[in-house]
Write a structure and sequence with these properties.
heterodimer; A: alpha/beta; Rossmann fold; Alpha-Beta Plaits; 6-stranded parallel beta sheet; 15 helices; B: 485 residues; mainly alpha; two-stranded antiparallel sheet; 22 helices; 2 strands; 1% strand
C-alpha cells in the first residue's frame, strides 16, 4: 500500500513508524522541517519530501499520482482539508484521511464527502483522547477500555490485585464465579512479558489482564480481578486546553469537576463555555492550591496540559497529596514506560490512541476498528468476514479449526445485535464481526490474509 | 570493540555467502569449457561459502539492527576484505603473489581496470569472466546488491547504501523503501548491460568478448580480454557502441530510471550534472582531436577524431579501455584526460573521481565568493540546476575535496619515496584513486601495473579503495570516536 503522510508532528511520526514497520507499506512523509525529516529517515525505511504539504508540486514529488492513501496530519485543519481536496481533484487519490480538530468543521453535517470537501475520513485526536479518558473514568480500576462494534463489546485492560476473587485461581473457574456473564481473557502480561491465557493459567497478583466482554458484563468481570472501586465522583482536571475542556464538558453532568488553568484569558473563556465545572485559575503543581481544593478527597486527578513534564510532576504531586487515582497525558513512549511502574496510575499516550483509527484504514480486508496496545507491540482488531465456506478460510469453521498465528486470540464474535464470546466450538458465519487480539503485531499480515478470503482477489 | 565489530561481522558473513554464489558463474563456464582453472573456482566458492556460514553461525548471538557507525564499518570491511576473497582463485591458479592477486581483484571490484597480468588473451575464459564479473558487481556496488536482495537489512540498509553510493546528496530515494530503490537501480544497470552486450555482439564481437566488454563498459571498469584492449578489434562500430554506453554509465542511474519511467529524455535535460558532463565531453573530444591533428599525430582529421573520442571518453568517464597508446601523445592530451577523469563522472553513476556535482557546487561557490567581494551585502543561495544547495552540503563538499587531494598528495609521496619516477607515481595514483585504469609512464596503456614492486602495488590498491568509497568511508575507520563505545 502506498501511503503519504503529511506532517511529521507527534502523530505523523508515530503513524510513519507504525506503518513503515509493515513490509507491505511504502511510506512517504512530507514536512516543512528538514531537520525532523532527516532524523526520521535515519531511523525508518521511508522516503521524505521537504515542502508545503498542500502544494501540488510537493505532493507530486512525494508520488501522489500512484498513492493509495493520503493521511493529512499537519497541525492546521485548513492545510489538511486543502491537501485532501487537491489530491482528489488533481490526482483522484482513492482514500484521504485528514486530522480535523475544530468542532466547527466536524460537527457540520454534509461538509465532507463526494462533491464536497474531499475528506473520506476525519480524525480528531483530541476527540479520541477525550473519549478514551472518559471511558477510563467510567470504569475505575481499568488501565484501558477500548470499544468494538459500536461499544457493544469492550476490551478492558486491568491490573489484577490481591483481593479479586479470581486472583490466585485458574482462568477456567471464571465461569463458576460469574455464571451469568461470559468473558474471554485475550492476553495476560506478567512482568512485561505476554503469557498465553489457557484454562489452567493461574492469575497472579500484579498481572496485566486484557479481557473481552459485552458492555453490560464488564463491571462483573472487573470485580473478579480486583476489589471493586467506587465510581469516580470528584474529578480534577489540570489544563484547560482542548482535551481538558472537552473532558470537563463531557463529565460535568455526572461528576463534580474542577478544572485548573494557569492562563487567565483561557480560564475565563473555559468558564464561559462550561456550565457546572468549577474553573480555577492557578498552577496545577501548586501545593497550596491543591490542598485548598481538597485534593485528598479527589477520586481522579487528570493532568492534561501540553507539557508532558508538567503533567508528570503535577500528577505525582497530586498522588502524594492524597488523590485517589492520577492520570497523565504523555507523548514520549519512554516516559510512559518509566512512570507507569511508579506513582502515576495511568499514562495516556495520545498517539497510541489515535494510531488505531488510522490503522483500521490501512489494513487489508474489511477491518472496521484497530486499537494499538502496549506502545504498538500488540494490536486488537475487529474484522468483518465476507463470502461463503468456499471462498473464505474461516467461514463455516469452528474456531478451534482456524489456524491462528502464535499469540493471536479470537475473543468474540458479533453477529447482528448479539455478542457471542468465542469458545472452541463457535462456528463463524458470513458477515460476523470477529474481534482478535494479537500479542505480537508482526503476525498481522498472516492474520490479514486469513480473513481477507479469496473473494477479494477476484 | 568486540561489541562493535561482531554484529557487523554477522552481516558481512551474509555478504560473503552472496558473494560465494557469484563465483558459480565462472565455475559453470569452467565446467562447460573444460577449463584448467576449474579446481581453483571450486575451492574458492566452497571456501568462501563455508567461511561465511561459519562466521554467520559464530556471530549469531550478536545480531542486532545496524546503526550508522555499523553501516560505515560494514561497507569499509566488505570492500577491504572482499578483494582478498575475490583474488583467491587468481592467486590459486595464476603464477602471481598475493599482493598482485589482491590488486587485480580490487582493481576489478573498484572498477579501476588497471591490471598486473599480461597475455590476457591466453588466460582461461573462466578467469577472464571472473575479472569482468568483479568489475560488474563492484560497479553498482556489492552492498547495494546486498540491500536489494537481503530484505532484513531494512533501516540499516539506508546507512550502508549511503556509505557506498557515490555523490554528496543521497537522501533522495527513488522509492520509499531502500530495498526497492536498490532493486530498481540494479535493474536499470542490468538492463543497460544486456543492451550493451547485444550491441557489441551485433557490432562484431563473439559472445564471450561481448559479455566481458559489456560488463566493463557499464561498470566503467576497463578490464579487457586482450592486452591491446579495444585496439585489438580495430573496429569503428565496436568503439561507437562502447563510447555510447560508457557515457550512459557515467550519468546518474536514477536519471536513467526517471527517463525510462517517463518514456522520454526530459529527465536528462533536468539533470544539471548530465548537461555539464555531456558539454565537457563534446568540447574535450573535439579539442583533443584538433590538437592531435595539428601536432601531426594522425594524417587526417577523421582518424584523429575517432581516436580522440574513444580514448578521451574512456579515460574521462574512468572506464580505462583504450585503442591507442595515448601516453605517446603530446603531454597536453593525456594530462587533460587525467584531469577530466577527476571531475567528469556523475553522482550515482558507476564512475569515480570527485563527481561532476561537486565540481559544479565548488564552481558556483567560487562564483558566489567573487560576487560577494563586489556586493558585500548580497544574499544569494547556491543553486545547481535550479535547486538550492544547503550550506551544509557545500561544507561537506569542501571537506571531501580537501581530503581527496590530501590523499592523492600523500600517496604520490609514498610512491616517490619508494623510488618510482614522478610521471609514473603521479599518473598511477590519479588513475587509481579515480578508478580510471591505465596511467602514464611505466603504467601507461602500452604496459601495466605488473612492473610495480609489492609496496607500490599495495599503495595503488589503497588508492583504488579510497577512491571507490569516496575517501570518507575508509578514513572514518581511523577516527578514534568510531571505536569508542
Amino acid at each position: 500500500m502506498k501511503i503519504i503522510i503529511l506532517g511529521a508532528g507527534q502523530v505523523g511520526r508515530t503513524a510513519a513508524n507504525h506503518l513503515s514497520r509493515e513490509e507491505a507499506n511504502d511510506v512517504t512523509v512530507v514536512d516543512q522541517n528538514e531537520e525532523i525529516l532527516r532524523d526520521l529517515q535515519d531511523r525508518l525505511d521511508i522516503r521524505t519530501v521537504n515542502g508545503n504539504a498542500a502544494s501540488p508540486r510537493v505532493l507530486e514529488a512525494a508520488g501522489i499520482s500512484s498513492t493509495d492513501i493520503l493521511v493529512a496530519l499537519t497541525n492546521s485543519d485548513e492545510v489538511n482539508m486543502l491537501a485532501c481536496q487537491i489530491a482528489w481533484t488533481l490526482y483522484r487519490t482513492p482514500k484521504k484521511i485528514a486530522r480535523v480538530r475544530a468542532a466547527d468543521y466536524t460537527e457540520r453535517e454534509g461538509l465532507f464527502g463526494e462533491n464536497r470537501v474531499a475528506v473520506d475520513v476525519w480524525i480528531s485526536p483530541e476527540q479520541l483522547v477525550t473519549e478514551y479518558i472518559a471511558r477510563l473514568i467510567r470504569y475505575p480500576g481499568a488501565l484501558q477500555v477500548l470499544d468494538f462494534a459500536d461499544g457493544r463489546v469492550r476490551l478492558v485492560g486491568i491490573r489484577a490485585l490481591q483481593g479479586g476473587p479470581l486472583v490466585g485461581h485458574e482462568l477456567r473457574t471464571l465461569r463458576e464465579h460469574i455464571p451469568s456473564a461470559d468473558a474471554r481473557v485475550a492476553a495476560i502480561y506478567r512482568a512485561g512479558k505476554s503469557i498465553k491465557p489457557e484454562g489452567t493459567t493461574v492469575i497472579e497478583d500484579g498481572d496485566e489482564v486484557f479481557f473481552l466482554a459485552a458492555r453490560e458484563n464488564i463491571r462483573a468481570v472487573m470485580k473478579e480481578m480486583r476489589r471493586e472501586e467506587a465510581p469516580a465522583r470528584r474529578v480534577v482536571i489540570a489544563g484547560g486546553g482542548n482535551i481538558g475542556f472537552r473532558l470537563a464538558s463531557e463529565l460535568e453532568d455526572k461528576n463534580q469537576v474542577k478544572l485548573i488553568e494557569r492562563d487567565s484569558k483561557r480560564a475565563r473563556r473555559v468558564s464561559e463555555l462550561l456550565r457546572r465545572t468549577t474553573v480555577l485559575l492557578g498552577d496545577a503543581a501548586d501545593e497550596e492550591l491543591l490542598l485548598e481544593e481538597n485534593i485528598d478527597s479527589v477520586d481522579i486527578f487528570a493532568a492534561l496540559t501540553n507539557s508532558e513534564e508538567a503533567n508528570i510532576l503535577s500528577a505525582m504531586l497530586a498522588k502524594r497529596l492524597g488523590a485517589h487515582k492520577v492520570m497523565a497525558l504523555i507523548n514520549k513512549p519512554s516516559y510512559a514506560e518509566l512512570i507507569e511502574s511508579g506513582s502515576i496510575d495511568v499514562a495516556i499516550s495520545p498517539q497510541t490512541v489515535t494510531i488505531g483509527s488510522l490503522l483500521a484504514h490501512v489494513r487489508r480486508g474489511d477491518v472496521v476498528r484497530v486499537h494499538s496496545l502496549r506502545r504498538g507491540a500488540a494490536e486488537a482488531l475487529e474484522v468483518v468476514v465476507h463470502g461463503d465456506a468456499d471462498s473464505s478460510k474461516v467461514i463455516g469453521r469452528r474456531i478451534e479449526d482456524i489456524s491462528l498465528p502464535e499469540g493471536t486470540t479470537l475473543g468474540a464474535v458479533v453477529r447482528g445485535e448479539d455478542v457471542i464470546i468465542a469458545h472452541h466450538d463457535t462456528t463463524v458465519q458470513p458477515d460476523d464481526h470477529l474481534i482478535l487480539f494479537l500479542t505480537d503485531r508482526r503476525h498481522i499480515e498472516t492474520v490479514e490474509k486469513l480473513f481477507q478470503g479469496s473473494a477479494s482477489f477476484l | 570493540m568486540k561489541d562493535i565489530l561482531l554484529p557487523v561481522a554477522h552481516v558481512f558473513a551474509l555478504v560473503m555467502m552472496v558473494f560465494a554464489a557469484t563465483m558459480l558463474a565462472p565455475l559453470v563456464l569452467a565446467v562447460w569449457g573444460l577449463d584448467p582453472a576449474l579446481s581453483s573456482f571450486v575451492i574458492s566458492a566452497f571456501a568462501t561459502f563455508f567461511l561465511g556460514a561459519l562466521l554467520w553461525l559464530g556471530t549469531r548471538r550478536f545480531k542486532r539492527e545496524l546503526k550508522t557507525r555499523d553501516g560505515l564499518m560494514l561497507v569499509a570491511l566488505t570492500w577491504v576484505a572482499l578483494p582478498a576473497v575475490a583474488g583467491f582463485p587468481l592467486w590459486n591458479y595464476l603464477p602471481i603473489n598475493f599482493t598482485d592477486a589482491y590488486f587485480e581483484a580490487a582493481s576489478g571490484l573498484t572498477t579501476t581496470g588497471g591490471t598486473v597480468l599480461s597475455g590476457l588473451e591466453f588466460l582461461p575464459r573462466s578467469i577472464n569472466l571472473w575479472r569482468h564479473l568483479l568489475s560488474w558487481l563492484g560497479g553498482m556496488g556489492i552492498i547495494v546488491l546486498a540491500v536489494a536482495i537481503l530484505p532484513m537489512l531494512g533501516v540499516g540498509g539506508m546507512q550502508i547504501y549511503r556509505a557506498e553510493m557515490p555523490g554528496p546528496m543521497k537522501d533522495r530515494k527513488l522509492t520509499p523503501r531502500i530495498g526497492q530503490t536498490a532493486k530498481l537501480l540494479w535493474a536499470v544497470y542490468a538492463g543497460l548491460t544486456a543492451a550493451c552486450i547485444a550491441c557489441l555482439r551485433f557490432a562484431g564481437m563473439d559472445w564471450f568478448d561481448a559479455v566481458c566488454h559489456g560488463f566493463s563498459a557499464l561498470a566503467l571498469g576497463g578490464f579487457s580480454t586482450y592486452d591491446a584492449s579495444i585496439g585489438h578489434f580495430n573496429s569503428l562500430p565496436i568503439e561507437m557502441v562502447l563510447t555510447f554506453f560508457s557515457v550512459l554509465a557515467a550519468l546518474n542511474f536514477a536519471t536513467h530510471y526517471l527517463a525510462w519511467s517517463e518514456r522520454g529524455p526530459m529527465a536528462y535535460f533536468r539533470d544539471a550534472e548530465a548537461k555539464a558532463i555531456l558539454g565537457v565531453l563534446v568540447v574535450s573530444c573535439i579539442g583533443v582531436a584538433v590538437f592531435l591533428y595539428m601536432k601531426g599525430n594522425y594524417p587526417d582529421f577523421s582518424t584523429s577524431l575517432r581516436h580522440s573520442i574513444f580514448n578521451v571518453v574512456s579515460i574521462a568517464t574512468d572506464s580505462g579501455l583504450h585503442t591507442q597508446d595515448y601516453s605517446r601523445w603530446p603531454i597536453f592530451a593525456p594530462m587533460w584526460m587525467m584531469f577530466l577523469s577527476c571531475i567528469v563522472c556523475s553522482s550515482g553513476s558507476t564512475g569515480g573521481g570527485i563527481k561532476m556535482i561537486r565540481t559544479l557546487v565548488l564552481a558556483k561557490q567560487a562564483h558566489r565568493e567573487l560576487n560577494q567581494l563586489v556586493h558585500p551585502s548580497m544574499v544569494r543561495p547556491l543553486k545547481v540546476g535550479g535547486s538550492i544547495i544547503a550550506n551544509k552540503v557545500v561544507f561537506a563538499v569542501l571537506a571531501f575535496v580537501f581530503l581527496y587531494f590530501m590523499s592523492i598528495v600523500t600517496l604520490i609521496f609514498l610512491q616517490l619515496a619508494s623510488g618510482l619516477d614522478f610521471m609514473t607515481a603521479f599518473s598511477a595514483i590519479i588513475a587509481c584513486i579515480n578508478n580510471a585504469g591505465p596511467g602514464l609512464g611505466l603504467v601507461g596503456p602500452g604496459s601495466n601495473y605488473g612492473v610495480l614492486n609489492n609496496f607500490q602495488t599495495w599503495v595503488c590498491s589503497a588508492a583504488m579503495l579510497l577512491g571507490r568509497l569516496e575517501v570518507f568511508t575508509i578514513l572514518v575507520l581511523f577516527t578514534p570516536t568510531l571505536w569508542r563505545k
